[in-house]
Design goal:
The structure is a single chain. The chain contains 16 helices and 8 strands. About 2% of the residues have low confidence. Helix 5 links the parallel strand 2 and strand 3.
Length: 370
């Protein structure tokens, strides 16, 4: 495996410290809110009775491949949660993981030893990998590809390393590079945080989160020089080398920034918290369907052109349906009905009575979808 260059020391340190700390139910960020996880699974799979990785097993079966696979590889494995999870559902017989953070790899190795699974881990700079040809039945990028500066090289190695009929699975941030979100996206999140009642903007540390601003490029790089370095190029670069057979976007353009540090307020069973969270969901749905916001996150399945026939590109039949659809009257009516139901539930709660500044939002959404 390749040596880690000095330029990645900050990246390795940051993600080594973060490894193993992510927990659904803690609510530090949007991914840690259980209802958000349920929403993401439903948006990706189209169902409420399965999760992402059981859905992948079903997808593989529909395409003529059976599990368990022989060997799968994870690029950017962190503390190894993905590999142990896949082992638990019998996805493959052998697992390999690579990550730039030595501390994360240490935790992954320790956990793998306790699990009894056939998992090996290595520390390496993924940008300079040289993988053995036709070695893996599947390769995963779990929120890691947006850290790769040399997408062309990494995707090329993945292409070479997949066995015939192999799969490349990505669950990724595909939004603006370095988190330089458009002004209207930032303004919407900022407006919500400034006007929500205190009970919804309390942080886990005891403070109040009153406002939102996109970080500067310098601030992003200071924490991790690889963060979202070419995130907005992942899809086009991937489509140059692979056939994208499944593209399942799941938003995040509102919820990602809004729930950061305040997700802890939405992890319990309080009906008012559920009503407020469902209103956020409805708002993001409206913004995505209207084209006001674009999807910042997506699950993607790609295969080599010679394995599926045709040329590299995006073949998902739903690809054209992910843009603005306000000209489709039936979807307008369905979205309006959903929004009205969410606001009706919220209006009957104490939180709604305390949130008069949000009434402009109800009226704006109704006007936009009428």
């Amino acid at each position: 495996m390749s040596a880690i260059p000095d330029s990645l020391d900050r990246t390795a340190t940051h993600w080594g410290e973060e490894a193993g700390t992510w927990t659904v139910g803690r609510g530090r960020n949007w991914f840690e809110v259980p209802a958000v996880q349920d929403r993401i699974s439903r948006l990706i799979t189209g169902r409420s009775d399965t999760d992402l990785y059981h859905w992948l097993m079903e997808l593989v079966a529909k395409r003529g491949r059976s599990t368990p696979f022989g060997t799968v590889l994870t690029l950017g494995c962190g503390a190894g949660d993905l590999e142990r999870g896949l082992y638990g559902i019998g996805f493959a017989r052998r697992y390999e993981g690579i990550d730039v953070a030595e501390q994360a790899i240490g935790r992954a190795r320790a956990a793998a030893a306790l699990s009894g699974a056939d998992i090996t881990y290595e520390v390496a700079d993924i940008n300079t990998l040289a993988l053995k040809a036709e070695s893996y039945d599947a390769i995963f990028c779990p929120m890691s590809a947006h850290h790769f500066s040399d997408l062309e090289s990494v995707f090329g190695e993945v292409h070479r390393a997949l066995k015939p009929g192999g799969f490349f699975f990505l669950n990724e941030y595909i939004g603006p590079k370095r988190f330089q979100w458009p002004a209207h996206q930032v303004a919407l999140i900022d407006l919500l945080l400034r006007n929500l009642p205190e009970c919804w903007v309390r942080t886990a540390e005891g403070g109040l989160r009153r406002g939102f601003a996109a970080p500067t490029v310098e601030e992003v790089v200071r924490v991790d020089p690889t963060e979202a370095v070419r995130s907005d190029e992942i899809l086009p670069v991937l489509a140059q080398q692979f056939v994208i057979t499944t593209y399942a976007p799941y938003g995040g353009s509102l919820l990602h920034g809004l729930l950061d540090h305040i997700g802890v307020n939405f992890v319990g069973d309080d009906p008012e918290a559920k009503a407020m969270l469902n209103t956020f969901f409805a708002l993001e749905d409206w913004a995505l369907r209207s084209g006001f916001l674009q999807h910042d996150f997506a699950a993607i399945v790609a295969q080599r052109a010679r394995d599926v026939g045709g040329s590299p590109g995006i073949r998902d039949p739903n690809w054209g349906n992910h843009g603005p659809v306000l000209n489709q009257l039936e979807q307008q009516k369905q979205e309006l009905a959903s929004l009205q139901a969410q606001f009706t539930a919220l209006r009957s709660s104490r939180s709604w009575r305390l949130t008069a500044p949000l009434r402009w939002l109800r009226r704006a959404i109704a006007r936009s979808t009428a």
